[in-house]
Fold:
Amino acid sequence: MTTAEALDYASVFVFGLTGGLAASRAQLDPVGFLFLAVITAVGGGTARDVILDRQPVFWVGEPANILVACAAGLICFVWAPRLESRRRALDWLDAVALASAVGAGITAARWEGAGVIVTVLMGVMTGCLGGILRDVVCNEQPMVLRRGELYVTAAAAGAAAGAATMELGGGIGPASILCGLVAFGLRAGSLRFGWRLPEYRSRPPRS
Structure:
């Protein structure tokens, strides 16, 4: 199993868990759990592979990814009611999923020979799109749009760190690890310590 495949499986499982937690918050039936787990788990990677023209798309070539996502959804169907705060669990699991998915995105882009800019963008897309689909389907404000929170910023910083490492001659493995640490560290800091970006503040028009 390659580094890219391992990262895809890891991100699929953890993002599947976040989809299951979102389904529990929406009080869906088991099929709803499976649906949300799968679209959350494979959404970002699917868009990445289509744009990079990778054949086949990762979960078509490795259908076990769908089974992993379904297993994550069913785990949440049993486990989620025991959680004291599903919102907080969702936030932290999503941070882990973001870190692993961004690493999977830059690794896949590098294998396809993409340049630095495309590699960073593929990392951000792989990390963010699945969560956006999950939140939109559940009629919740997407995490990427929460005011001031570090989400896309965390993904972009992690992807940039990983891409720069590979560009400077570092291996894919160390680059993926650094990418994940940077992305998770910034996202965790935002959740735990309230790290924020400056917010836009409108001013009254000049008379």
